[in-house]
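pinned: reference chain
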Amino acid sequence: MSGITGTWPLIRLALRRDRVILPIWIVVLSVIPGSTVSAYEQLYPTAAARASLNAGTGSNPSVAVLYGPAFDLSTPGGWSAWRYGSFLALFIGLFAIFTVTRHTRAEEDSGRLELLGSAVVGRYAALTAGVVVAGASSLLIGVLIAAGMVGSGLPVAGAFTLGLAIAGTGLVFTAIAGVTAQLTEYSRSANGVATTVLGAAFLLRALGDSTPSASWVSWLSPLAWPQQAKPFVADKWWVFLLAIGVAVAVATVAYRLVPLRDIGAGLWPSRPGPATAPKSLSSPLGLAWRLQRGSLVGWTVAVVAMGAMFGAIADGIGGLVGDSEQVKQIMERMGGTQGLVDAYLSAIIGLFGMLGAVYAVQAALRMRSEEVATHAESVLATAVGRVQWAGSHLAFAVLGPVVLLAASGLASGLAHGLRAGDLSHQLTHTLGASMAQLPAVWVIAGIAALLHGAWPRLAVAGSWTVVAVAVLLALYGPVIGLTQAVLDVSPFVHVPKLQPGTEFVATPLFWLTGVAVVAVAAGLTTFRRRDIG
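pinned: its C-alpha cells
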C-alpha cells in the first residue's frame, strides 16, 4: 500500500460533503470581475474622466492600501483587475484555508480520519485529498474568472493573466493550510495560524503598494501577485509559475511533516494545564472565557491596528475618483454629503462590521467544536443546563463584536481625528457609525446559533456560507447591478450611514436586532430538544 492509497475515495467524500458550499464559493468568486466590466463605461464615460482617474489614483497611497497599485485605469480590463484583484485574492485565500483544514485537521478532530486510517488508506491520502479539492477549485475559479472577462469583451491574454494569478494565490494558501494542519492539534488553531499568515500577507501588500521606496515588499505577499502580474497592461503570465513554485515548495514541507506526528496530534504540542483548576472555571461562563479569550484578544489587536492604519490615510482618499462627477456622486451617496472622506470612513467601518460578523460566527461555532470533541457532553453531564452552557458561548458571539467594533471605531477615529485636527468630533462620529453595525452582526450570529441548534451537521458550512453571501452581496451587489430585493438579503445593506448631512433612521436597527433575538431564541430552543452530538 502506497502513502496515497485511498485518495480518490476521500476526494469523492470531500466533494460529497461540500456539494453545497463549494459551488457557492466557486460561482460567487468567478462571476464578480466579468459582471462589473460594464460599470466602468458608466462611471468613466469620457477620456478626460479616465485620464483624471489614472492621474489621481496612481500616486495615491490611501487607495493603494485598499486596492493595490493602479498601473493603467484607462481600460475596462485594467480597472476591473485593479478594483477586484486584491480582494478576490484575499477571498480565495480564505476559501483555500477553510477547505483544506475542513478535510484534514477537522477530520482528525472528529475522529473520522483515525477510523478511515484503520482501513486501506495511506498516510498521505487525507492531505492529498484536501489539497486536490482546494487546489482544483482554485484553478477552476481562475479559469471561470478569465472566461467571464473574455465573454465581456476583454482581451484574452489579460483575462487569463488575472484569472491564473488569482488561482495561483489560492494554490499558495492551499499549501500553507496543509502545513498549519500538521503543526496544530485542533482545526480552529490551524485556521487561526493560516489566517494570521493571510493577514500578514495583506499587511505586506499594503505596505509595499503604498510605499514607492519599498515596492519590492509587495512581491513577498501572494495577495499582491494578481496586481503585480499587470493584467491588461503587461500581462506577466509567469507570475502564475511563481505561485506554482511557491505552492509546491510549501506543500513539500507539509508532506515532510506528516510522518513526524501521530494521527490526532500536532507537531506543536498542547501546553499542559495546571494541576488544579482556578475558581474562574467553576462556571460555564468562566470556561467559555478561557476558551474564547485568546481569539478575542487577537481579533482586537488586529482591528485596532487596521483601524489606525485606515484612519491615518483617510485624508488622501480624494484621489480615488479624480474629476469623475459620476463616481463622486456614487461615493457621496454611499457615505454622506460631506465629501469623499466621510464616504471612505463609512466604507471602512462597513468592512469592520463584516469582520465582526466573521468573529461572531467563529465564537458561536465554538459550541459545535466542543460538541464534536465530546467536551460538551462531559460538561452537560454535571448540573450545568444546556441553555446555560450554550448561552455562555453565545455571550461572546454577541458581546465580542461590541468590543471589536468599539476598538476599531475608536482607533480609526483617533488616527483620523489627530490628522484632521478634529479629534472629539471624529471619535464620536466613527464610534457611533461602528456601533450601528452591531445589529447586522448579531443577525449573522443568530443564524449561526439557529443552525447549531436545529441543523448541527450544517452549522459550520451553513454559517460560513451565510457570512460569505452577506459580505459579497454588500460589497459587490450594487456594482454588478443586482436588484434591491436580492441586496436586501444581506443585513449589512440595511445599516444606516451615520454621516453628517444624512438622515439617521433607527428603524432598521430595531428590526435587525429583533431578527437576531428571534434567531438566538430559536437556536437555544432547538438545542434543548435535540440529542448531543
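why pinned: Residues 478 and 487 are 8 Å apart (CA to CA). Residues 1-270 form one domain.
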